[in-house]
Amino acid sequence: MASDTAAAAAPLLSVEGVGSGYGSMQVLWDVTLHVGRAEGVLLLGANGAGKTTLLRAISGSLPLRAGSIRLDGAGIDRLRADQRVRRGAAIMTEQGVFPTLSVEDNLRLGAYTLPRASLRAVMAEMYELFPEVRSRRHDAVGSLSGGQRKLVAVAKALMCRPQVLIMDEPSAGLSPRYVKEVVAQLARVRERGLALLVAEQNVAFLELADRVYVLEGGHVRFEGTVDALEGDAAVREAFFGLGGPPSGGAGPASREQV
Amino acid sequence: MPAAGFVVANAFYPNQQELVMMMVYLALAQGINVIYGFTGYLPFGYVGFFGAGAYGLALSVLYLHVPAGVGLLFAVLAAVAVAALLFPLLRLEGVYFAIASLAAAEALYEVISNPSLAAVTKGPYGINLVSAYNANASFVAAVALVAVSMGIVVYLRTSRLGLALRAIRSDAVSAEFAGINVVQRRTVAWLLSAAMAGAAGGTFAWYTSTFYPGAVFDSSISIFAIVFALFGGVGTTWGPALGAVVLFGVYNAVGISQPQYFQLIYGVLIVLLVLFLPGGLGSLVQRLAPRWRRLRRTPGRGPEALPGVGGPDG
Questions:
Q1: Residue A98 to residue B166, Cβ atoms within 8 A
Q2: Residue A62: strand, helix, or coil
Q3: Which CATH superfamily is domain A2-88+165-257 in?
Q4: CA 20 to 30 Å from B94, out of A234, A244, B27, B141?
């Protein structure tokens, strides 16, 4: 059908001219952003730039004041958060887990929208991907270290077999070792066609990105490939504190180090 | 199992009324468990559903001339209807919800006991169901009540609904992001909990067969049910049952003859509990079980047995 080809060409997730905010304070202004199928998109911005607000608007916990959001060609901005998850947009909030519940219960909840029959297969898959999570599966998530908790959160978010995984600062509170681990696992999952939209300040996540958006003061300040970002001296200075000319010793965002 | 326990106890223990009351409180404590232990809403006005159930049974027997056993269905329906009317309360949280539910129960009491409704509810003059009185049949109903309320909690402990409710209690926003329809699941728990209190109220009304409105809307019924549930431990299967049996037993042993000692014992028990076992008696089992398992599994310490990563409370 013609509509099928149209949908395939259209981006998986498209945010068009979105405005949103809290009470009398408008935080986002006319934000337009696209995530293609199996594409990795990084959302950069300083604290207070509106990254979390944008993710909340996309995930459905904050109503829009302007614009629209489409997933897989269908408008989702009138759906509740749980309905958006069922459409294939998984959200991993900064906390991302239920601390009072066991690891296994957390994963089970991650697969809440799946048919029951597929639960075991998906869980086995996640345990294979995250052996460290498997070894703690009967413990309460609250008793795990911050890094392990984050791995559980990622595994839980992946349990519902999403088309796109939306993550808010997955590196928050993580040691470099776990940042590496999370990035490596996400890279593996991406190979299977998962799209990513990650709000981050940690440059290690550039490895996962095909394209980058930079938010500043609720506006999209920059949109482009990672290479273009690294060439944009002003953006680099503003968000990575990497002043000086691109040829300088500090070097461009050091993707190689990761 | 506890239901069978009550049947056995009935053969040996002379005071059947005490046993029935214990069973009624067990069901109420489990009802509190369902709404508070699984969703975090603490209804101080829980007795409203109990009273609604008592009147549901009484009025259906008096006016529709149904057998009292069928009247139990009307008891459940009445409580569920009240709960449905109170849906908006679920928008409130914490203390506000607790107070609002208390006010709602008081309002219901005032309506039912109002003399100008005496033609329908018998107003303040109370209910007389002597024609339906049947100690043995209503005892059986109470045993069934215990079995069903235990069954509901076991179901919640093991089912997807229960998992969803525990997730909502842990973090409602994250639960929504897991794909759970938070409002709908909460509503189910609320109605279920109300139905349990309604059945308890109906059973009580059937067994006692004469009562004043003040007796079935007494706010100390709410308090007792909440204390029993918390004492035993909410969120567990056995906690509230244990709490009801132990504390109601203490109440009967000491409370009626020497109320001052009873209050002393209650006070000390509750203080000890809050200080040393905030999760209730049931949490003692939960806390010891993993340690026991670990002890049996590995005499030498594996990486899992590191100090400080023991309990969920760490």
A1: yes
A2: coil
A3: P-loop containing nucleotide triphosphate hydrolases (3.40.50.300)
A4: B27
